[in-house]
Design a protein that fits this description.
carbohydrate binding; globular; 13 helices; Immunoglobulin-like; 14-stranded antiparallel β-sheet; 752 residues; alpha+beta
Amino acid sequence: MTKVHSDRLNGSIDVGESFRTLESQYFQGHEVTSFAPLKQQGTLKWVRASRKPRMAFNKIDYFFEPTAMWEFPPDYEQSPEMPFKLTFVARDTVRIQIQTRLRTAAAIPSVMLDGEIGIDESWREEKMEKGYRWSNECGSVELELAPFRLIFRDSKGRVLTQTYHHEDKPSLNNTYPIPFSYARSISDMSHRLAASFSLSPGEKIFGTGESFTALNKRGQRMRLFTRDPLSAQSPDMYKPIPFFMSNKGYGMFIHSSAPMTFDIGQDYDAANTLYVDDDSIDLFFFFGEPKQLLLSYTAITGRSPLPPLWSFGLWMSRITYNSEAQAREVAAKLREYDIPCDVIHLDTGWFEQDWRCDYQFSSSRFDDPQQMINDLRKDGFRISLWQIPYFTPHNLFFEELIEKGLVITDNEGNLPTGDAILDFSNPEAVAWYQEKIEGLLDMGVAAIKADFGESAPIYGRYHSGRSGRLEHNLYPLRYNKTVAEITKKVTGDTIIFARSAWAGSQRYPLHWGGDAENTDSAMHASLRAGLSMGLSGFTYWSHDIGGFVKKSPESLYRRWLPFGMLSSHSRAHGAPPKEPWAYSEQFLKDFRAAVQMKYRLMPYIYTQSYLSSEAGLPMMRAMFIEYPQDPACWMVDDQYLFGSDLLVAPMLEETSERHVYLPKGKWIDYQTGEVYEGGGWVTITAGDIPIIVLVRSGAIIPQVEPAASLDFVNWEEVEAVAYSADGATCSGVFYHPITRKLVELEDRRVNS
């Protein structure tokens, strides 16, 4: 029987397994049988095939073999012809929609897309011997009719990628690569698509969401299925995103929420096969270099709005502060030790019983939560609260949610798991949930931690009328949206703190990297994940500084801390203790210095955040985003650009120096002032703060005197520090135009 789901609850799904079985019936995209050039739409003929065992030279392989229809009555098609369509939606973007059924479910508005998709008139059509070509200054798309083929070329006519036809057969084994095809399951007649594209020698692929594995996805098999991996060092992902980009100058987005598997040259080195657990494929193809690709992708799925200024400060947390006394004590000690901080986060322990989310402060451990929030706010602190959309049987709301029909069920109307899981596809469930959150925000709570969300049952029945096959991956996006919208309504701020995501979730910042181990390798994996997330359309990202699972070793925590400070958002969180005074006196000083560094750089960070939000760029950037013409930058995964002008190289091991790759030009050490010549690898010793931070020569880095809270910063005295090629710096007090404008907006929002 065709295996389509995992053999364990919410286990990751490999959609490509459907294309390995003898039982499946295969239909391979063969030829275009009709095409209307003015409408750019037609019909595609699919020829039948089966896998058949072949013994040769004492081994057996399973080849594709043409097969005759054996169905009754004989009204079915031997080679079905199904609709497909091309739409040129922007000067650098083409949309390809291919169906495998004549009748499909009624379309509903996509939660992934941000607004209407337009039509661009710049594409010129011409008839070719084998079909049609559409081109403009960005590149061209060719449609060959028989055999069916799509070929994408850059503006110079060089092939970027093209589809594989079953007649290509570059290998002696005709299943390599899997041709552009679909598989029909013997168990339920469902269809799954394999969109197979060529990979070039030396081609590299990046993106696919918050992936902890190697930054270059070439040679990997990516399972795009939201799952809590309980780790930052496995192939599973909290935030898979069906978008990727190539160093060849193109990107692709699969507009679907179905489980997917991207086999990026693992089964067959020259093929990028996109397996989609759906009976149609809606693919956006983008032309351009990384910045343009992100701009174009986020034009379709939305960009990250600028979060409030206070959110860029330190968030102090652990598992878990569970009383008013603890929260007040932590806040007092942060001020006593002169450590800037803007947020105190209360995790799973602010309820009467830990983890049992009822949206009420514990009456036995919080004497007056309203007064606590008010008092901490006066001292520059905001409160963030944890919660969860899963309700255990002893939860106060368990029966109510079931009786009101606000939860996900199975096909018999029962709970598909032990919990009552809120169904965010149900507007009534959204309203019920937002009412609970609104009460907390009205008290003055500044942010809600939208934890979990990865485990929506794939066998569930949803209010939307769709199965878990399409709702599982969509659940995080609906969840993010629900929390963000009520927060925006009550506070005016666009801010959540979420762990799970799908395409479009970048519209609801911010997200963090989940439960990282307390190891050097987990720190590196978290860095890769942040870079990969930024290459998937997300501007803002955070991670648990020092690791989550156990008490952070002091040496690791000390090195991880400045990496955390030079991420867009900074949260110390995990198994206790996380407070710096619980470690050595030297660590306390190091902690203070690293946090003050971020607060000093806040005018730069806030300005770069504004510009990044506008352009769909990440704050934490893979090197090739800024330097796409430098081949070495496509190879580096252990350093990054923070905004456009700061190069950051964390200390991933307990050592005082490390190799850093510097693009051409001069670079000035932010801590020591030493100048380095770019264009190669340089060994650099870290400064007093255990991280390497270099400033691009010629950059002006606006800075400010650190304060206990961003509420207390003197924005009238922002200092412009210019870093020149000869190493000299000059500075002066000035009004940085973007920063000043944003601070004025922030003041107006707070005062109102």
